[in-house]
Amino acid sequence: MDRTARISEEMKREISAIIQNELKDPRLSSLISVTNVNVTKDLRYAKVYVSVMGNEEEKKNSLEGLKSAAGFIRREVGHRIQLRYTPEVQFELDNSIEHGAYISKLINDTVKKED
């Protein structure tokens, strides 16, 4: 595992903990999970993919809340992980979990129809 992959995993763990325990923004949904973190090779940027369970309005609000807390999250990550330069955090919505649940539902519905 290379250095950026290790840093990405460590950031994923820390950002998840910060979102669950530190952020008190009312816009944030209670069901937010960090699915992936991609850190650039130069460690300048970290793209954080989050999955938000809920309707489109809750997703939009949660993403806005995370973006407004990005500076705080970056500072906290900087304190917890010893890096010379803490990457700038950018949040993206990841719908893969929701898409997987939808596909599972379609498969289950099809199987029930065949019985």
List keywords for this structure.
115 residues, 3-stranded mixed beta sheet, 54% helix, alpha+beta, GMP Synthetase, Chain A, domain 3
What features would you describe in this structure?
With 115 residues, the chain is of the alpha+beta class. It has a single domain (3-114), classed as GMP Synthetase, Chain A, domain 3 (2-Layer Sandwich), CATH 3.30.300.20. It is 54% helix and 19% strand. It is built from four helices and three strands. It has helices at residues 3-21, 56-68, 70-80, 96-114, and strands spanning 32-39, 45-52, 88-93. A three-stranded mixed sheet has the order 1-2-3, sandwiched between helices. A hairpin with a 5-residue loop joins β1 (32-39) and β2. α1 packs across α3.
Describe the secondary structure blueprint for this structure.
Layout: H1 3-21, E1 32-39, E2 45-52, H2 56-68, H3 70-80, E3 88-93, H4 96-114
Parallel strand pairs: 2-3
Antiparallel strand pairs: 1-2
Helix pairs in contact: 1-3
Largest sheet: 3 strands, mixed
CATH arch. level architecture: 2-Layer Sandwich
CATH superfamily: K homology (KH) domain
The tally of helices reads 4
* Total of domains: 1
Beta percentage is 15-25%
